[in-house]
Design a protein that fits this description.
Elements: H1 3-34, H2 38-64, H3 74-89, H4 93-122
Amino acid sequence: MNDDALKTLVAQGLAAMKNGGKVAAAASGEIRNNARHSDLKAALEQGNQTSQQWTQRIDQALQEAGGSGEQKNPVLEGLYEVSRQIRQQAPDDVSRDHGIVANGQLALHYWIAAFGTIRAYAA
């Protein structure tokens, strides 16, 4: 793959991650409000702060890669919709909190894989 094609691939991936950060930011308050356990609420707040730091890093990397476009992120949009359904359908607070944790782990593993992929492309 030539350098221009690789640079485009990195910029597209970063743009999708940037959009995913927007999805996460929009969802975090809603999810935190649905959580009942105080430790879970605190973990969600810490995760939101970390996500904001990631967003800044993604913006910087996107500028360095020469990308500026927006790109949808259907993976995180889908995970957000699943989270909404889990939270709405939970029969009790404990089940809802467990659903929040499970879906949060899926989203976090997506982020880890996405960052790792972009890093591998950029190396």
